[in-house]
Amino acid sequence: MAFQNAFYGKTVLITGHTGFKGAWLTAWLKQLGAKVTGIALDPPTDPSHFAVTQLANGMVDLRIDIRDRMALEGAFVSAQPDFVFHLAAQALVRRSYDEPIETWQTNVLGTLHVLEALRKLDKPCAAVIITSDKCYDNVEWVWGYRETDAMGGPDPYSASKGAAELAIRSHIKSYFPKATSKVRIASARAGNVIGGGDWAADRIVPDCVKAWSINNAVELRNPYSTRPWQHVLEPLSGYLSLAIALSQRSELHGEPFNFGPPAQQDHSVLELVQQMALHWDKVRWQDVSQSTAGPYESGLLKLNCDKALYYLRWHAVMGFKDTVRMTAEWYRAYYQQPTQIAATTQSQIEAYMVFAKQQGLVWAE
Q1: Environment class of 58 (CB within 10 Å of its CB; exposed 0-12, middle 13-18, buried 19+)
Q2: Which of 54, 91, 108, 272 has the smallest C-beta neighbourhood within 10 Å, fewest atoms?
Q3: Of 95-109, 137-151, 303-317, where does mean pLDDT reach its minimum?
Q4: Is residue 359 part of a domain?
């Protein structure tokens, strides 16, 4: 079913709508004609995509901490959503070392609170709970992780995401029986997204544009670490596809799904920076990997997305060059004409939908 038909006029609740992925998802759903309710803290950065595109207009914009169970449940009951996307999280690996308690409380207890809030609904609702590709126990093998592989991770962030997946599975089996539950739930795992509007600390693309916008060199801590880079709109199209399928097919209730690019789209941090440099003037970078002491970060991580292709007919549609180009163009537009950036966001969503239609994705038809 086309996204426009599925979401037009529907009530959609998004947690974490002021964050990077949440803001893009909010913009897309508003563009599709959905009635959006957002639950989040204030935007985590200044500037933020949510603020500069004035996304608060034309939606219900709530400031609720997902660790506040009673407030969260009240918001769910009031909204009576048809669809739920849970993205609110402590999303930074390096911060998890500094703030492990906050990370576990937000990512695990917060997810449990969302699940409990879903229990308060007495109506059909499809809920997609987003965790991370880092939920897997990453032993850095060269093939992609499948949804049945072991959960866990060596750092507080990864471990909290693995624990969240266990909590999701437990709650579904305990409180949302497959045969009778009006609320259907699935989890989604993706990571290493790039795109315009991300200003988070310790992420390579924000580090580049912040440095290059003032003619400074960007410091590369791990230039040879490889990641399956994908544009932010890629996994979001997966989440939307999963939500539609979940609302129509009870057999998907309780299932986890990976969303990522093809295996050949693994590129190093250095390759990403070199590709971005093609779309930016006066760029410089410096390899500080030998002089920078920092916490452990994995060097290799891949996902196997065959399940999403088989059950949802979903696959990534953008190559590495287009992914980087679209990302760089958004930031260039922001630094040149910040007051017009909402139009850039809208046009990039439309351009992405053209990519999807050209490659025959069902939702884009």
Answers
A1: exposed
A2: 54
A3: 137-151
A4: no
